[in-house]
Each structure stands twice: as C-alpha cells, then as structure tokens.
Amino acid sequence: MPPTTQAATPRPEQHAATRAEFFDQLAVVGKAFASAKRLELLDLLAQGERTVDALARETGMGVTTVSAHLQILKLSHLVRTRRDGTHVHYRLADDDVAALHSLMSKVARTHSPDVGQALAAHLGSGGGPSDATGEVEEMSHDELQRRLDAGTVTLIDVRPRAEFDAGHIPGAVSHPFDTLLDAARTWSPNSEIVAYCRGAHCVMAHDAVRLLAANGIHATRMQDGMLEWRVAGRPVEGSPTTSPARSAATPARTLEAAS
C-alpha cells in the first residue's frame, strides 16, 4: 500500500495573504455602495429594471455619469443587464441586493442622527430622527395584510405606473401622484385609504396622504414601502420580465480608477 501523502500545512503568512485578498475583494463590493449617486441608482433599480436614459431622466444626472456608476455596480456584481435592440436594461442582480440596500438604510436611520435628521427634512416632518414620519399616520404590514384579506381597505400605489407594472402589492391599484385627486372622486366617502410608494425614505406616499387630507379625505401611509414589503418575502404581483435574473457574473476587477 503506497504511503499516504500529507498535505502541506499552510504557514501563517499564507493565511494572512489570502485573508487580505478576501477583504480586498469584499471592499470592492462595499465601495460600490460608497456613493450617494450609486445609492440613488440602486434605490430606483430596486423598483424595476431601467435603461441608462431612464435613470438619467429620473435622477437628473448626465447619461455619461449614470453609465460610469452603473459600470462600477456591474463590476461589483450588484447589477446585471439585458439587451433589447439598441437599449440595455439594468436590473439588480438578485433580491439579496435589494435586501442589503434596505438593511444598510435601516441601520443608518437607526444609528446615525444625521441620517435621521436628513430623512425627517426630506419627508417634510417636524420630528427628529425617531419621528421621521411626522404627522403622517402609518399602518404596519401585518395590519395592512389583515385588512386586505378582509376587503376593508383601498390600497393605492402612488409610484409611476411602470414601477407598479414591474411589481406591486396584490390588491393595490395604481394611482400615480399626479392623478390622485381625479381618482379620489371615484372613491366611496367611507373608503379606508392606504397609500404606499418606493420605500422608507420615499416621500410620495407622505405627500399623497397630505394632499388627500387637504382635500378632506383621510388616508394612511403603509409603513416603509414596496422595497421593504418585497424584502420581507411578502406577496408581489408584476411582470416577470422585470424580475432580477440569475446569469453568469461579470469578472471582478479593482475599481479604484472608476470611483
């Protein structure tokens, strides 16, 4: 019987080198989040796929700037693409990217007073970091689901129609903000209205509730938004063509020059 060959025991310096390489590659992914512009792009892509031109229009960035940031996200494996004729559509690589984006935002809101104050100012409330929703009443996901199951609530999605089509809460109806008052004329005076939009720091649902209140209609805002609903694993309806797809990853490389 031939002698058993013993594998060489790695030396401590070898472990140090491979550990350093792992953290270097992990930092590539972390660095992709270290840009306000890229966070804004991720926030939009969490609602559904978009072209570069669409992202440029919605963010006010130049097409060249958007393309550069998308390349960083793609090289970090956080987004993927599909081609439709001359158009390239970008989407999140998978739902776990949306979950990471959502969790990072939640941690920042919880632990950073500066983030909490900036959010309160953005949402138009007078509250501090722990009172970011201000005077806008909100309803939990569990309570909303119970009322949807009982058929006692009218749930309105105030995001743009394309985002509704890409994925929405079952039972919701699409009423983008600029159509809201026209839609309100068709509601029963006794209707219980709940509005939702993109996520915890999306202002559209807050503004919708305030607009309706100014016109004598009581409404409530769903806690957080579509991003958090999806991340929690709750049911979503929408076009499967805009769901994140699993495809071959782009080879990784260092991104120092692109930041």
What integer value in Å does the Rg equal?
Answer: 22 Å
Note poorly predicted spans.
126-134, 240-259
Which shape, going by the Cα principal axes? Answer: elongated
Roughly what percent helix?
A: 40-55%
Number of strands: 8
Count of domain modules: 2
Any idea of the CATH class of the largest domain? Alpha Beta
The CATH architecture classification of the largest domain is 3-Layer(aba) Sandwich
CATH homologous superfamily title of the largest domain: Rhodanese-like domain
Might you state the CATH topology name of the largest domain? Oxidized Rhodanese, domain 1
Figure out the total of helices: 11
SS strand fraction: 5-15%
Query: What kind of sheet is the major sheet?
Result: 5 strands, parallel
Mean pLDDT: 86
Distance between the termini: 58 Å
Could you give the order of strands across the largest sheet?
4-8-7-5-6
Give the H and E element order. Answer: HHEHHEEHHEHEHEHEHEH
Structural class: alpha/beta
